[in-house]
Amino acid sequence: MLSKIQSLGCRGVTGYAVSVECHVSNGLPGFDIVGLPDAAVKEARERVRSAIKTNGMKFPVSRLTVNLAPADTRKAGTLYDLPVLLGILCATGEIRQPPATAAFLGEVSLAGDIRPVTGALTMALAAEQIGLKELYVPAGNAAEAAFADRVTVYPVENIAQLVHHLRGDRRIAPKTAPRLETEPRFPVDFAEVKAQENVKRALEVAAAGGHNILLVGPPGAGKSMLAKRLPTILPAMNRAEMIETTQVYSVLGLTTPDDPVVRTRPFRAPHHTVSNVAMSGGGSALQPGEMSLADNGVLFLDELPEFSPAVLETMRQPLEDGSITISRANGSVTYPSRFMLVCAMNPCKCGWYGHPSGRCRCSPRDVRRYHARVSGPLLDRIDIIVEVPALEFDELTEPSAGEPSRAIRARVNAARAVQRARYGDDTTTTNAHMGPRALAEFCALSPECEQLMHQAFDSMALTARSYDRILRVARTIADLDGAQTIGLAHLAEAIQYRTYDFSVAEP
Known about the structure:
- The chain is of the alpha/beta class and 507 residues long.
- Helices cover 37% and strands 17% of the residues.
- It is built from 21 helices and 18 strands.
């Protein structure tokens, strides 16, 4: 007897169809799984055998062969337990063959319970594209998988429940996608920030255009505090962004039944001791790293020069492309990694270089060596560099009367709406990702602006990339101002954000 059960596979954030073929034949009892299975897939033999017997059904005392097609693609994980079990039950006549438009996935316990798996949303989206109509998943994955619009998701808790459903005795109610909150809630607010008006303005510009930003200042000036409040002024995630980011988190099993979808923009702040693999992703399973976990959100690097140079250099291409490809001997996987890079650093090793108090004891050589840990090409990919001064006593003791995040976010949303209407596609949503053609069309300069830009280019020794990034920032400032064209004030402010002097004078 031969049966065929439809299932799915997941590699990175890409899903694909897998056919589970079960053949029961005469011969010495045996149970083989072929089709490039890994160790976890092979161990399904014992889990499936025990689950069938525990639930009072007959396990065949015959030659049993299971093929996972396509046979030239490596299969990994425990998600094939359920389709293998159903294939055996169909081949032995315990249940009827499910329709070809139905797919099954899930880990089976020895008692027959169905346990959650990783990558459920990715596989549900793949089921849509393949044309499947029904998807049976563990109950713990149902809320996540239900965000696939064109496939009916059935939450399965155990084998007995599924068998009754397939026999038509007791139907399983399909799962509906939970409602998404449109207004994010945060425990912090910009209203709590005292003074630092120039820095808050720079963060507003960065949020409006999706620009990368570097905060430079002494210890205790509030760099980390300001960076942690940046998500409070970013626009709420749309449905497409939620699904894309959730796919990354689902691969690592970071979603839960109570919180199946990433609703707020991620804020990732890895320690400066993070490894290259942890930042970019990789390992034997080709899992995503911090850059992908920050997709559609913020990647915050505190104490930037303390990070390994190799780690910092891995960010250069993802900052340009919005994705990262991990290539290893066993294949390659591409993950989305379109994030805002927010960095913070001290002006020197001790943190007090240039402070009026004269507390710095670093030599010019030490300061230059400290700055040299951040490469020029990486700094060139940062749109805004702003100094965060230490607060004076009077500023600290004054009652906080800062502008709340809600008001700033309203201006950011208005600027983002202008950008969406301007570009009108899914590939370019912010000024930070403006291509060459859009740059020439929407960032045209008047003769007065061209003259100012020429002076800045020569005096600041700008590169072509720096030139383009200044134009993008100027375009964002004009959008915040509601202007159709870039004015002289907009361009001057954008140039100001790249005037921080990293040079160190000799004593």
